[in-house]
Amino acid sequence: MKFEVALPYSMATTTFTYFFFSFTVLFSFFSFLLFLFRMKACCNCHTCRTYLTFSWTSHFNNLCDWYTHLLRNSPTGTIHVHALANTITANPDNVHHILKTRFHNYPKGKPFSAILGDLLGQGIFNVDGHAWMFQRKMASLELGSVAIRSYALDIVTREIQSRLLPILAANDAVLDLQDILRRFSFDNICNFSFGLDPGCLHPSLPVSPLAQAFDQASRLSAERAMMASPLIWKVKRLLNVGSEKKLKEAIRVVNDLAEGLIKQRREMGYSTRKDLLSRFMSSISDNDAYLRDIVVSFLLAGRDTVAAALTGFFWLLSRNGRVQSRIREELDRFMGPDEEIASFHQLREMHYLNAAVYESMRLYPPVQFDSKFAAEDDVLPDGTFIRKGTRVTYHPYAMGRMERIWGPDCLEFRPERWLQDGVFLPECPFKYPVFQAGPRVCLGKELALVEMKSVVAALVRRFDIRVVGSNSEPRFVPGLTATVRGGMPVRVSERRR
Ligand code: HEM
């Protein structure tokens, strides 16, 4: 005899809810225990206690500000947060050692590639060794070509003229400039990488499913790094619940789009197209998953960084009328009265503008810190011992605020510090590792600088942009790139000239 008990629908739902709720409570409890265990077992030093109890928040807006304070007070410019097994340095000699002299001892490492692995796969941003070297060579060749640079500038120019300027001109209400700049840079990097226009900066400011999925995927991947233990997200991923379920769905949207585009290119041909994907398809003809990984890495590398850099720039400019006037004087000297967009040649001649862009990223670097993992025991130039497997972090945000690197006026926004007799003089990249430095220096540095300067030239010439509301320093959302919590509200008005 066979008994079959058919649970009523509502009962099945209740049972499921009960189990799901119990699991969530138990899981949170387990995470909290793990957190307490780490707190007790790791270390009881003042720094670790302050970190683990979040008591730094009573004095500092951001974790990076607290680290800056600690690094300033450290005689070597290096600190160790034992609870995180993380050595953090703002010492240029150490940065030179990590990023160049002993480059092979400081790969990105397994913990980092595990965190971003589902989103980035085997893309350049997420791999070491031969896989990295192969992509680096291929990408350097492509990005170094004059043709791709002029292709990139064409994309940026079009986006400024047809979308960015009209949107700002049409709005006299308060706008979130950070949001506008994120939309702007997403349109650009998608056009550049895939030859696809997501249209995020259309006048209606639409919600783009791709941008949304990409944002969610990078945010949730970054949040993995903040969990008390990697075990937590790994178990959630295994069970496909909570944030890991959302992450999987967001990555699926990005993957579907990338795979669709690759398939379409294969069918329609790619040899005459200029975007990065089509260029890479000529070198990698038989591995679509790999192609997808490479191009998604570019999307991540080039999207939020440019928007973050421009947000920091306009925040500083809004408080520094003197710098704004000097930029305008220079623009007027090199551009005709009716010219809206500066040419590549004009941008190259504008040393003050270049200095102002560098100076803003000294104070607000888009990538505030960057970590590597020591492959073997080592000793840094300042005498700090590094045990194999330790996370080693260089901190551009703190370095830009160190008196011993930049002098007593290090907190001032002063582009003149980059100029000698009006000519821009670059600084040692290990003192200013905003684009990293050494063999793994940012591949998009020149493109990013041209994009930033084009935007600044076009906006500063035509508009007055004032940040409204709070006068306090920005608060950042924890993540891979600097994002101001709550956005950057501005009022934009046409200049009377
Ligand atoms: C102001 C804008 C930018 C800043 C501050 C910046 C900064 C950085 C930093 C700090 C790294 C090292 C990251 C790491 O290894 O963990 C990096 C790597 C990279 N960046 Fe940028 N970036 C910017 C814009 C761009 C753009 C627009 C692109 C692409 C068009 C790009 C492409 C890359 C790539 C491919 C890498 C990986 C290089 C490698 O691992 O060999 N970046 N960038």
TrEMBL record:
Keywords assigned: Heme, Iron, Membrane, Metal-binding, Monooxygenase, Oxidoreductase, Transmembrane, Transmembrane helix
GO MF, any single term: oxidoreductase activity, acting on paired donors, with incorporation or reduction of molecular oxygen
Presence of keyword Membrane: yes
Gene source species: Senna tora
Pfam families (UniProt xref): p450
Transmembrane segments: 16-37
Name of the protein this chain belongs to: Cytochrome P450 94C1-like
Top-level taxon of origin: Eukaryota
Cofactor: heme
Family: Belongs to the cytochrome P450 family.
InterPro entries to which the protein is assigned, alphabetical: Cyt_P450 (IPR001128), Cyt_P450_E_grp-I (IPR002401), Cyt_P450_sf (IPR036396)
Statement: the UniProt record of this protein carries the keyword Isomerase: no
Binding site for heme: 442
